[in-house]
Amino acid sequence: MFGWEFPPKIYGGLAVASYGMTKGLSIQPDIETIFCLPRPTGEEEKFLRIIGMNQVPIVYRDHNYDYVKNNIPDYMSPEDYYRFRNNIYADFSYMHVNHMGCMEFAGGYPNNLHEEINNFSIIAGVVARSEQFDIIHAHDWLTYPAGVHAKMVSGKPLCIHVHATDFDRSRGQVNPTVYSIEKNGMDHADCIMCVSELTRQTVINEYHQNPNKCFAIHNAVYPLSQELQDIPRPKHPDEKIVTFLGRITMQKGPEYFVEAADLVLKRTRNVRFCMAGSGDMLNAMIELVAAKGIADRFHFPGFQRGRQVYECYKNSDVFVMPSVSEPFGIAPLEAMQCGTPSIISKQSGCGEILDKVIKVDYWDVYSMADAIYSICTNPSLFNYLQEEGKKEVDEITWEKVGQRIRALYNQLV
To answer: Do 47 and 156 lie in a common domain?
Structure first.
């Protein structure tokens, strides 16, 4: 399995989905996952085997056993290093490698992202020659080239997992380089798993893929740990709190949240709005809030991590996800786990499996404002969405997702 993110290092939903999926698969006794990451932290959970692509040599270095042992991380053995070294398949001495003959990765999404994607796919060739496996599974466009390369080397079937397409990220202003990487991955894939039917239709219609190899595999959530369940839910008798939590970018529709907030505040001043997250539209949103004269009712706490995310959900009376194009969207499920009623856009994949939420078009700020106002002022509506929403989301588990993925694996092999 090739992935770009994995907990504890989380940049977004991709890490959460990669974790949930592999954990769901790990419950099945005869599945073993080797997860290849650009730059692991070494603190990843041990239910799967992690390969740090930054520790796989692509240029031969004649090091003795002790030198190798002292210069590789705990999750790798000198035997692994030598095995990879024996499978270097070309002269990469012109590449920038370190003293171990390995490539460095920044991790995350650096300015030279396309270079890192290319380097990752070169190293995938060494890994595919070194390991025993039945299926290749590549997550998101960043690892499709690696998946294609591994398939070319091994002849094994390739699954690609479409967590988003460039049509979702760019509101239709598609980057031709990214599109070509995505399309090439899809063309070579034997099975395309999409996080929603919405995404599946995009893959079929915009990337011209055979519908028979495209499947909707919805994401899920993990049961909350006791520590997160124990976070208190403050009561807000006087002022309600309405939250947007996510990347503050064009795809997520933050300006529609501000517009709806402005409409709500024309009807009542007893509501506070929280826009948690960071992104390229943050400053524009701060300026828009100021221009509308609602800055005294608005909070921008910045990027939230780990426990902070759940504290934010628990401290909210309403969660809003006004995404313009959301392949899935895991945030409303997490909010509902915390007992927070959710409003989502009809343009969100998670809406396909959620009923106990309010759905509005992302552009319909009047309906969004009505929904926010109704939940804030109608205790019986709040209680219904809180209780039924939590029941609904507790049934959506990664174990079930793992079983569906396993069924597709069985078809492939």
So the answer is: yes
CA pair distance 17, 405, nearest whole angstrom: 13
306's tokens = 């780990």
16 in Cβ contact with 7 (< 8 Å): yes
Note whether 312 and 169 are same-domain residues.
no
pTM, two decimal places: 0.88
pLDDT > 70 fraction of the chain, expressed in percent and rounded: 100
Q: Decide if pLDDT at 172 tops 80.
A: no
Closest-CA residue to 142 (of 44, 17, 251, 14) = 14
Query: Looking at the domain assignment, is residue 3 inside a domain?
Result: no
pLDDT tens across 210-238, in order? 999 999 999 999 888 999 999 999 988 89
| Residue 238: CB atoms within 10 Å | 6
Spatial CB neighbours of 310, under 8 Å, sequence gap ≥ 6: 224, 228, 231, 334, 338
Assigned token pair, 365 = 């700020």
Look at residue 245 and tell me if it is in a domain: yes
173: left (phi over 0), alpha (psi -120 to 50) or beta: beta
Print the domain residue range for 390: 226-394
204 plus 316 within the same structural domain: no
Q: Are residues 380 and 244 in the same domain?
A: yes
What total of structural domains would you count in the chain? 2
Cα torsion at 16, 22, 25, 29 (round to 10°)? -140
CATH number of residue 251's parent domain = 3.40.50.2000
Is-contact 60 101, C-beta < 8 A?
A: yes
> pLDDT class for 306, splitting at 50, 70, 90?
confident
8 inside domain: no
Same domain for 347 and 405: no
Q: Please indicate, yes or no, whether residues 18 and 135 belong to a single structural domain of this protein.
A: yes
Kindly give the residue spans of alpha helices, DSSP state H, lying in 266-359: 282-291, 307-314, 331-337
| Domain co-membership, 258 together with 132 | no
How many other C-beta atoms can be found within 10 angstroms of the C-beta atom of residue 226? 7
Q: What are phi and psi of 87, to 5 degrees?
A: -110, 15
- Confidence class for position 272, pLDDT limits 50, 70, 90: very high
